[in-house]
Structure formats: structure tokens, C-alpha cells
Design brief:
Chain lengths: 303, 370
């Protein structure tokens, strides 16, 4: 734990020192006790830049144990560069098992997505959050927004959503769509597309949110009410796609648009790579799936 | 045919291998040693220690070379290391009045007890590139007067005798100094916390803000009461021992800015102070810090808050270059899930717009004809 004379610099197990882990666990417990409330915590510098998942990494580093199995996704995919980097970090500093399979993971750290496969009790979903304050773009001052939360003064948010409808005919927020947690705190679900909002509602998994640069942790305990803000005459609705996944044929999943050529050719494929692989392994085919040698289209887990 | 985009560990590993190669550069050129950086790029090392909040020249030198000379990257490396170190305790407050001074100047007095000591300064050098330095010319040994056995009194203490300058001010008896590396920042903050944040704040950011106050955005008529650079002793109280244990000394730069103040409902007319203290030798940073500190005291002194430099949330929230660089550079990360969501919305709104246009068009033609 301490630097030895032969080593110019050494690091503790799971990077953070034990005092820090305890401090973060206390913040997490407070967050669980007050669902949706942003708990200030003394965020540490991490060996990756602020804005690159330091909040999520600190939460994961504080709760991870040697028996945990970790999955890290970014944009729904296990093989995006930052997910690869964070997974490699925990393999190195905590020596835990890692996986790309949603069902096998005990901790899933994510940026911008919730896996398609429903989570189960005992799993922890750790979100990386850039701006935890849902009111920030309406009111830049922290001193003001904390007051607004304390007084449950969320009129400004409803006015914003109403103005969207007046101007554009619909609520023009497509991601980081605000939710109300357990009827009390308005919360930013992190910049996940609003498609994923319903998955948070009464999820059996524990959902933890870490914002490192902004020094906030918040939580949604299992089976908690998470309701997307809307109006009676403009009910909340999620994105829909006109076509199924081109590789696995999945419907009602979130799709990424992949550009195929420079003549406007494109295809839509699952954003959740694990879900897509699973379905193809189970024999599902999309219209662009390679029929003859299906192995070439299969994405190997980036290890 | 669609080929899965693989960010992949191999690509990252190769990128880092190339980085290591570029860092080393031409193998025919000898590699830098840390002691060369410590000795010959000392002010760069000081900046990394100061904004990295870790007083260790060797680690700072390692960070500078590892970062290929990118100062913010080096500061980041040091921060990410120091944050993992366990905390044993807090030293007693440093008394800069007992500093072993190497440089000490005052702009408010022609001469003063202890005198004006220029020390190793760029001031009054002509900024002419020196070909002899490039050729590796020998350097003369310096001529220095013997170290003063007496401590040099601070200018603020001299002014205080007349009651013309505000005192250090009192904190409530039960006030425990905060620690921004262990507790979350919360606004509004006490001055001790604010000074800690300023001391590790980005030199360029504070310089620009300090400069803005001189140009009329919250002007506060500053004079350099004193700048001093030198070694100060650190002492730690250990519960088992009846005396404070000396830990060694560190080099710091202190700036006391003296500011005219006409008085307000809250305070009588007197000189007020802005304070700057940083690790190592960095007058620019210490002076900028002092200007910002004074500007941020607007509320305390009953001044109108009219400019960015006086706005605590604005200044402190944006002064940390490790935070700033991370969040700006995170825009490089993939955002395609959110972009897809926006793409869908814009396509839909665009289709509606075009449908409306098509409906309107016959009318427009008629109007044009008329």
C-alpha cells in the first residue's frame, strides 16, 4: 500500500485507498436511502480524465470485490475504446473476472445505455454521469438548483417541456430525459436515450450513478418508481425504429445507424452488442446477416 | 457487407506503443534523466507540483517527461497519484514570516526592513535568445549575500501597525480548516477552501481573470505589497510527543496584494488584501491568485458583484485544469447513441417541415404572381 523505497510510485488494490472507498460507500448508502437525491462526495482524481467515466469508475472501485464479475459497456457495446480501457483498468488493478455477457455480470458499468436483456436482483448497474443536475441547463448555479430540489420546485422543468411542445409540437428531449424518482426527486438518468428510461422503472437491479467531475453520487434502489416527466395530453413515448436489426432481426431494441458507403447507404444494427450476438447464436437472422459463414459477423468479446 | 467496428485492445495497445516511441524520440539522442529535469526545468517542475498539489520534485519530473512536456497532462498524472496516498495528518500552519528568503520585493515601499532582495528573477532580463546557452557555455558561480539570520518581517505586518490594513481576520473558534481533496466542494465556500482551490487552479485561467480585474472588470486597485520566495519549515503535531515534529522544508512563493478600499456599509476605509501562496517558484501564479482572491471577497466586503472574476461559482468551478481538460476532451468519446436519438428527431421534424412547405408552396406561387 505504501510506496517502497525501490518503487517510485505504487497503487492500492482497486486503485483507491481504503479511506476513500469507505467515504464513497457512505455516499452510496445515503443515495440509496434517498432515491434520486444527489449526494455530494469528495470525488478523487482518477487515472483517466474527468468526463471519461471517473464517477462510474470510483463507484465501481468502491463496491467491487474479488468475487465480482464485471462488464463494461459504452454506447451499448463492449468493444468501444473507452469500455475496453475501463475493463482493462479493473482487470489490472482489481484482478476481477470480466465478461461481455449481461447475465453473467454482477456489476455492469455503462455509459449511455442500459442493456436490452432485463437485469436481475443482485446485479448492480453503474452509470457514468457527466452532468448529474437535471436542472443545470435551466439554471447554471448549483446554489439555486439545490434550493429548487429542496423545495421540490420543478415548475421550470415542466415549463421547458411545455415550450418544446409549443415550438416543435413534441418534447424535443431525446436523451438524458428527466425522470421523477419515487414521487420526489427529479433526476437525470445520465445521457441514455429516452428509449432506456422505462427499463429503470421498478428494476430488480440496484442502479448507481457516479459523476466524478461534478462530485455527485445518486442511486435508484431496486423496485423503485422511476417515471419519465410528461403531460396528460403529451404522454411520454420512446423512440421507435422503422426496421429491425439488420444482423439479428431484433425489434423493439435500440439501433445504431451504420453508414455503408458514401451514397447514403446505411443499415441499422443493435446498439447492445451482447444482445445481438446472443440472438444470432440462437439462430436469429437479419436481412444483412452473413448467412453462409455466420462466424465472420460475430463480434468477439474484446479482451 | 458490414464489418464490426472493433475499438479493440490491440488498437489501443499499439497506439500507446507508438506514443512511447514518440516520447522517446530519436534513440541517438540521450534520454532525459529525472535529475536533469529537476535541475534545469525547475519552474516547469514547480508548476506541476503546485497544480498537481503534491510536493515531490522527482515525481513531478517523471510526470513532465512521461507527458512529453504537456504540463496539464503532467499535472493530471501527479494528481492521479497523490489522490491514492493515505492521509496521515495535517501540518501546523506555515509561518511565512520565518521564511529563509531568496527573493523578496515590495512595490509599496522603496526600502524596508530586510531590504529588497531580487533573487533569481527573469525581471529586467532582456528577452534575447542566447546562442551561448545553446552552445552549452559555462555558467559563472552566483554572487549572493550571506543568509540573514534575522527573519524578514512581512509588509502586511508593517502596515498593520498603523491600522491602515485589514487584519488577517478571524475564523470562528470552532472552524476547522477544510480540505478540498477530502471533502466535496460546496457553494458558497469559506475563504480557506477558496484559497486551496485557487492555489491548485490553472495558472492561465487565473492569470486571465486577474488581468480582467486590472482592465476594469471588477477593478480593485492592486499594489504588490510583497512577494517572497524561499524555504519554510513544516511541522506536525504528533499526539505522543509534547513538541511539534519538524518534517523538513518546502519552497513556496507568497504574494500579498494590497488593495485600496473606500469602505462600505460592512467595513471601514482601509487597505484590503488579496493573498496568493503556491508551491515552488511562481510569481505569476501567486500574483494572479492574489488578484482573484481579492476579487472573490466582493461579497464579504459589501462590493457589487459585476464581473466574472468576482463570481465564486464561476471562478472555482472552472479553475481546475484537470477537470476542464477532461470534460472538453471527453467530446472525443463516442456519442453515437445520443447522436442517433437526435438524428431520428431531426429527420422527423425535417419531414414535417418539408410536408408543410409543400402545402404552402401553391399559395406562395400565387402571391408571387400577384
Amino acid at each position: 500500500m505504501n510506496a517502497q523505497s525501490t518503487d517510485i510510485a505504487t497503487y492500492n488494490f482497486a486503485y483507491l485507498d481504503e479511506q476513500t472507498k469507505r467515504m464513497i460507500r457512505r455516499a452510496i448508502l445515503k443515495g440509496i436511502a434517498i432515491p434520486g437525491y444527489q449526494v455530494p462526495f469528495a470525488s478523487r482524481e482518477m487515472p483517466m480524465p474527468y468526463g471519461w467515466g471517473t464517477g462510474g469508475v470510483q463507484v465501481t472501485a468502491s463496491i467491487i470485490g474479488p468475487d465480482d464479475v464485471l462488464k463494461v459497456i459504452d454506447q451499448g457495446a463492449d468493444d468501444t475504446t473507452n469500455a475496453v480501457s475501463i475493463r482493462a483498468f479493473f482487470k489490472k488493478v482489481a484482478k476481477v473476472d470480466v465478461t461481455t455477457e449481461t447475465a453473467k455480470a454482477t456489476i455492469i458499468q455503462t455509459r449511455h445505455r442500459i442493456p436490452e436483456q432485463p437485469l436481475t436482483a443482485g446485479q448492480v448497474l453503474v452509470f457514468q454521469v457527466p452532468i448529474p443536475e437535471p436542472l443545470r441547463f435551466l439554471e447554471p448555479r448549483e446554489t439555486e438548483t439545490r434550493k429548487m430540489h429542496a423545495l421540490e420546485e420543478y415548475g421550470l422543468m415542466h415549463v421547458k417541456l411545455y415550450e418544446d411542445i409549443a415550438k416543435h409540437g413534441r418534447i424535443a428531449t431525446t436523451y438524458a430525459y428527466p425522470v421523477k424518482v419515487e414521487g420526489r426527486y427529479v433526476m437525470d438518468p445520465s445521457p441514455t436515450p429516452k428509449f432506456d428510461n422505462p427499463k429503470m422503472h421498478r428494476s430488480p437491479a440496484l442502479q448507481l450513478f457516479g459523476a466524478g467531475r461534478e462530485k455527485r453520487i445518486y442511486a435508484v434502489p431496486p423496485f423503485t418508481e422511476v417515471v419519465s416527466l410528461d403531460f396528460e395530453d403529451h404522454p411520454f413515448e420512446v423512440q421507435t425504429f422503422d426496421q429491425p436489426c439488420a444482423l439479428c432481426g431484433a425489434e423493439n431494441v435500440y439501433l445504431d445507424e451504420v453508414i455503408l458507403d458514401d451514397h447514403g447507404g446505411h443499415m441499422f444494427v443493435c446498439s447492445d452488442t451482447d444482445h445481438c450476438e446472443k440472438r444470432r447464436a440462437d439462430g436469429h437472422h437479419g436481412h444483412l446477416a452473413p448467412e453462409t459463414h455466420s462466424a465472420s459477423g460475430k463480434m468477439e468479446p474484446a479482451e | 457487407m458490414y464489418v464490426a467496428v472493433k475499438g479493440g485492445e490491440a488498437a489501443i495497445a499499439n497506439a500507446h506503443r507508438l506514443l512511447a516511441d514518440r516520447r522517446r524520440g530519436d534513440r541517438a539522442v540521450p534520454a532525459l534523466r529525472l535529475d536533469q529535469i529537476v535541475e534545469q526545468l525547475a519552474l516547469g517542475v514547480d508548476r506541476v507540483m503546485s497544480e498537481g498539489s503534491l510536493y515531490d520534485r522527482e515525481l513531478a519530473a517523471l510526470a513532465v517527461v512521461q507527458a512529453r512536456g504537456d504540463m496539464i497532462e503532467a499535472i493530471f498524472l501527479v494528481r492521479a497519484y497523490r489522490t491514492t496516498l493515505p492521509r496521515f495528518g495535517y501540518t501546523n500552519p506555515v509561518d511565512t514570516g520565518t521564511m529563509q528568503v531568496e527573493r523578496r520585493i515590495s512595490a509599496t515601499y522603496k526600502d524596508l526592513p530586510g531590504g529588497q532582495v531580487l533573487g533569481p528573477t527573469f525581471d529586467y532580463t532582456h528577452r534575447l535568445l542566447d546562442p551561448e546557452l545553446a552552445a552549452g557555455a559555462e555558467v559563472e558561480t552566483p554572487a549572493q549575500r550571506p543568509v540573514e539570520p534575522e527573519a524578514m518581517p512581512r509588509v502586511s505586518a508593517i502596515l498593520a501597525h498603523e491600522g491602515l490594513i485589514e487584519a488577517d481576520g478571524d475564523m470562528p473558534l470552532d472552524h476547522v480548516p477544510g480540505d478540498i481533496t477530502r471533502e466535496p466542494l460546496q457553494f458558497p465556500m469559506a475563504r480557506d477552501i477558496r484559497l486551496q482551490a485557487l492555489s491548485r487552479g490553472d495558472e492561465g485561467f487565473l492569470l486571465a481573470l486577474g488581468y480582467s480585474t486590472q482592465r476594469g472588470y471588477a477593478r480593485n486597485h492592486p499594489f504588490v505589497g510583497e512577494i517572497r520566495i524561499g524555504e519554510v519549515e513544516l511541522e506536525l503535531d504528533v499526539p505522543e510527543l509534547p513538541f511539534a515534529v519538524p518534517l523538513g522544508s518546502i519552497r513556496v512563493t507568497e504574494c500579498q496584494m494590497v488593495n485600496q478600499f473606500k469602505g462600505s456599509a460592512k467595513a471601514p476605509p482601509q487597505f484590503t488584501r488579496g493573498y496568493g501562496l503556491v508551491f515552488g517558484q511562481s510569481e505569476r501564479k501567486a500574483m494572479a491568485m492574489a488578484l482573484c482572491d481579492r476579487a472573490l471577497r466582493a461579497g464579504e466586503l459589501g462590493e457589487d458583484v459585476v464581473a466574472a472574476a468576482q463570481d465564486e461559482e464561476f471562478v472555482i468551478s472552472h479553475s481546475d485544469n484537470v477537470q476542464a481538460t477532461g470534460f472538453v476532451e471527453h467530446l472525443k468519446l463516442p456519442h453515437y447513441v445520443d447522436f442517433q436519438a437526435e438524428l431520428g428527431l431531426v429527420r422527423r421534424m425535417r419531414a414535417e417541415y418539408e410536408a408543410r412547405e409543400n402545402e404552402d408552396r401553391p399559395e406562395q406561387k400565387r402571391e408571387a404572381a400577384e
